[in-house]
Amino acid sequence: MAAEVEAGNGQGEKTKQRPGRRWLRRPQFRARGRREEPRVAKGGEARAVARYVRISPQKMRLVADLVRGKPVEEAEVLLRYVPKRAAQVIQKVVKSAAANAEHNLDLDRASLYVAKIYVDGGPVLKRWHPRQRGRAYPILRRTSHVTVVVRAAGEGR
């Protein structure tokens, strides 16, 4: 916990305040060096997540909508020929989710389909572009978090 510092308020009274942070640290989601349980969703679903991808969520969702509900093998073939940069990222996540299902749940790869795929917005990198008369316009470099959940075809579609 931060130590409290006494500071004057200009009227002879002393108030207690905390020293300010000079920077913010990125949150830690798991203890370093300790392996967490495999990411397995409930009901025989396996999932994979790609975080902090430097493509805007709007562009990622265009590609994600193409593979939602399709078999994994068909989705991989489809993504191989989609001429968008987001297709490579989503293909990696679909492959990873299928590998998690094979390895952790002993499911057959041929029976897997993409049950859920969603793209959430991540942190936004803010940059400034100089404009006329000393003004500055913001440039928002958006990031994405992609989550893919695969399920065996026989289990409640």
The strands making up the biggest β-sheet line up spatially as: 3-4-6-5
Low-confidence segments, ≥5 residues, pLDDT <50?
27-37
> How many strand elements?
6
Number of helices: 3
Strand content: 35-45%
- How many separate domains make up the residues? 1
CATH homologous superfamily caption = Ribosomal protein L22/L17
Largest sheet descriptor: 4 strands, antiparallel
- Mean pLDDT, rounded to whole units? 83
> Helical residue percent?
25-40%
- Taking all Cα atoms into account, the compactness measure Rg is 23 Å
Tell me the CATH architecture.
Alpha-Beta Complex
Shape: elongated
Write the element-wise H/E pattern from the N-terminal end onward: EEEEHHHEE
CATH topology category name = Ribosomal Protein L22, Chain A
CATH class: Alpha Beta
Q: Return the structural class.
A: alpha+beta
Distance between the termini: 49 Å
A few lines on this structure:
The chain has 157 residues and is α+β, with helices and mostly antiparallel strands.
